Amino acid sequence: MTSSIKRSISIPVDCDACAARVDGLCALYRANVLPLPARFRAADKRLKAGEDVFGAGETFDGIYNLVEGWVALYTLLDDGRRQILHFGLPGAVIGFQPDSRATTTYGVQALMDATFCFIPRDNLVRLVRECPEIAMRLASLMSRDRSLSFGHLTSIGRHSARERVSQLLLELFIRYRSQWPGHLIEELRMPLTQELIGDATGLTGVHVNRVLRELKRDGIVEFQYRRLRILDPDKLVQVAKIDPHLLAPWVRTQEDGDGTRAGPHPQLVRATRAAA
Amino acid sequence: MTSSIKRSISIPVDCDACAARVDGLCALYRANVLPLPARFRAADKRLKAGEDVFGAGETFDGIYNLVEGWVALYTLLDDGRRQILHFGLPGAVIGFQPDSRATTTYGVQALMDATFCFIPRDNLVRLVRECPEIAMRLASLMSRDRSLSFGHLTSIGRHSARERVSQLLLELFIRYRSQWPGHLIEELRMPLTQELIGDATGLTGVHVNRVLRELKRDGIVEFQYRRLRILDPDKLVQVAKIDPHLLAPWVRTQEDGDGTRAGPHPQLVRATRAAA
DNA sequence: CGCCCCGTTGACAAATATCAATATTTGTGG
DNA sequence: CCACAAATATTGATATTTGTCAACGGGGCG
Fold first, then answer.
1. I need a labelling partner for B212 at 20 to 30 A (CA). Which of A132, A152, A239, B233 fits?
2. Euclidean distance between CA atoms A71 and B244, whole angstroms
3. Do B188 and B242 have their domain in common?
4. Do A45 and A116 form a contact (C-beta atoms < 8 A)?
């Protein structure tokens, strides 16, 4: 007997115990209908916090499956400023490109120690030929990422700083939590600094600080030294000005087909209530 | 003999003459390798300028293929403000959802008279079973949309008003032009108002106006009453602060496989030079 | 123990929004 | 072709939000 509780954390190579399998490309495997992409996997990659999976403008042939850790997709400006485009959580597919010659338009950085498994493009093509549902799954994942981007666009384009920061924290909380259904968490460790929050919301680190102090003063959320505590879930939902329709992409993408599914609203309510 | 030049404009139902076929889901057909989605098409839809394809929060079972006209994907805020998420040009796939129960997170409005063909979800699944490449094509299209969103996020989050407006105009010019390779245009009719530009760039219509007047004063671009003229392409590229890596998603997605392809830089240069 | 990254705070500057009035263009009907 | 209405663009004065710069504090980690 090698382990009990922490197995999925310490042995990322083992597909059967992979934590990322709850979501992402391999989610279908859980339904016992489809062959696991395991056979098509080539190598694993481990990075330390701060290292890049790849930089902007590179080409490479395949996709990375984020197994453990958080990553940030970002672009850099000439003057050194940065825009974070997306936070990738375990299960994320990283680096899919329309064709093998295309260069990436963004860089990807590990926000904490992270592990990936890599599927070469050729293998992906073979995998899809064998099992077209995988390609539809991939399309769904890309589509969900797009929806997340749409949410961020609305947030950055039309919301106030207070609303943007609130929305980001709520989003990450819900996305993180939806990976462990039934697991109640009151407090969440996030590998974020106020600077990173600013880079994601189109604000300055300094201004994020001001907003966070306000939110704490008002008893809504507390974020200090990478520790998030949600003090008043209902108020947070309210101040984040969430369009309920935008919620769907935050929770895990389900396989199409069987089963009833609760709408997004109760899920949000449950998710946030759990933290109170 | 029914026609000569304008055939593709007036007979949208005819797949063989469809203008959208240069891009989008049916692009593979041109390579004569794959069966046309035509057999799986269900119905056509025609809209007048200003009408909605669908609103936020709706569900529907299938995808729309934009054949003719421009559309805007948008979200609305409580107070009536709007954020435009994406402009869809002919060839765009509209309304793909991860599963059949998902509700849309955005609305889609026709910016001019537009026609679509509709492919029901069931047919799409059958089509993919028959030809998995279509699913990969769909994933590529979603991925490209995501990349476009990433570009907009960087623009809205970190660029000045002047840069944002310049970049949007340049993007639309290049995307439009890449649909007619070899066709030189000096002047482009766009179904946009300054208000629309503001909604897309996270600015106010009034402020967009001020920026446009500046750009005209500086001899860079002229945009008045839906007519875009690029006066100095090089300056425009410069002021738009385009990250060259972000350019790839602007030009048509090519089918993977054969053929050499020029990098994005010369394409941009050619595209913009043509307008001078 | 001490360093360094991160967070905190204040004064001030810059960019953009808001409000309101007026001008121009487009499209429509006669 | 003209007149008119509606939509869109233009401009100025002022308000608000957010950024910039600079200094200081505090906590974790070697």
1. A152
2. 23
3. yes
4. yes
Identify the pLDDT of residue B18: 75
pLDDT digits (tens, 9 = 90+) for B43-87: 789 999 999 999 999 998 999 999 999 999 999 999 999 999 999
- CB nearest to B158's CB, from A97, A132, A202: A202
Within 134-193 of B, beta carbons closer than 8 Å to A belong to: 135-136, 138-140, 142-147, 149-154, 156-158
Residues A251, A177 within the same domain: yes
CATH of the domain at A258: 1.10.10.10
Structural domain that includes position B165: 159-276
For B31-76, the DSSP string reads GTSS--GGGG--EEEEE-TT-EEE-TT---SEEEEEEES-EEEEEE
- Give per-residue pLDDT as tens, B80-113: 999 999 999 999 999 999 888 899 999 999 999 9
Look at residue B248 in the predicted model and tell me its pLDDT. Answer: 85
Which chain A residue has the Cα nearest residue B79?
A158
Domain count, chain B: 2
Of residues A35, A58, A57, the one with CA closest to residue A123:
A35
Global pTM reads: 0.89
Using 50, 70 and 90 to split pLDDT, how confident is the model at A219? very high
Q: Which of B146, B244, B248 is closest, CB to CB, to A142?
A: B146
